[in-house]
Amino acid sequence: MFARLARIFRLGIKELYSLKADPVLAGLIVYTFTIAIYTVASGAKFEVENAAVAVVDEDQTALSRRLRDALLEPFFQPPVRIGADEVGAAMDSGRFVFVVAIPPKFEHDVIAERTPTVQLDIDATAMSQAGNGASYIQNILIQEVLAAVPGAATATPINVVVHALFNPNLQSAWFTAVMQVINNVTMLAVILAGAALIREREHGTIEHLLVMPVTPIEIMLAKIWANGMVIVLAATLSLVIVVERLLGVPVQGSVPLFVGAMVVYQFSVTALGILIATVSTSMAQFGLIVMPVLIVMNLLSGSTTPMESMPVWLQNVMQFSPSTHFVALSQAILYRGAGLALIWPQLLALGAIGGAFFILAVLRFRKALQAAQ
User: Fold this and answer.
1) How far is CA 310 from the centre of its chain?
2) Tell me: the pLDDT tens digits for 307-323?
């Protein structure tokens, strides 16, 4: 038993030296967990910011000017006044995302407790900004009318008080940064483990392993622990330094618990990477197979869109993906401060899926080694 563990350890050290000697992969790891996370989290935003807005003011009263002046930075650019006949051309050319049209006698109708209509034209090609911006403008207009004319007809029958938990300022960077770490863990784990096996084959060192007193399971476990350790260490440093320190995203839960869950997840996805490598004949073919697998795992795991918004049959299919369970437990730990008592079902599912991938990879790897002999 101890001799087998020693062989796995030494083979893993060999993997670390191979990774060190590959500057492209080493640079990819550093870039993925630093610059890639910072630029995506700080640049790709879902909330409205610096949106171009125009106002068609056909009322020309103090109230209409107040509504126009309420569209403030940083949500919107300074409003541009245009004529009603310019709206179609301005929207077609993409000059404005929002056009607010205030009708004639608007202030008069509000004071008379009628219900005047304000038209809002939206360029919905940018869907998230369009939806959020429409809600922003609606709330701004209602608040300004009520402040200027108390008791106006725009008053709502109920007063809704909203409390946003875990992300009170609704900053998309808080969500994007953490999810980017999780997606990058998935990507690199599959790529590094599979590339390590294909590199052995392309460099001819697989024949050296065949004459050594090692088994396929030992070779696989060495690749899993070596590559998994590098990714876990890089992801942990990225979470603490880039996400928490540089981006200022608070982590609610236990980082050690998240790291422990990430170790289990690494076992699953590195085994998947080795499984894909066993059916690939070259690094190019491996890349072509990995690309759609990673896209599906990242986009449909719940890290980009909620699982509840997907068709039921697709939700059921994605339960066989380890990324689905890892995203769920990561969000529970890092956003809501969940403990082991809440995430153990996801951990159990990760272990079961990882065991299935590992068994399939061992069977495929043994067949590949027998074919090479």
Assistant:
1) 16
2) 877 888 988 999 999 99
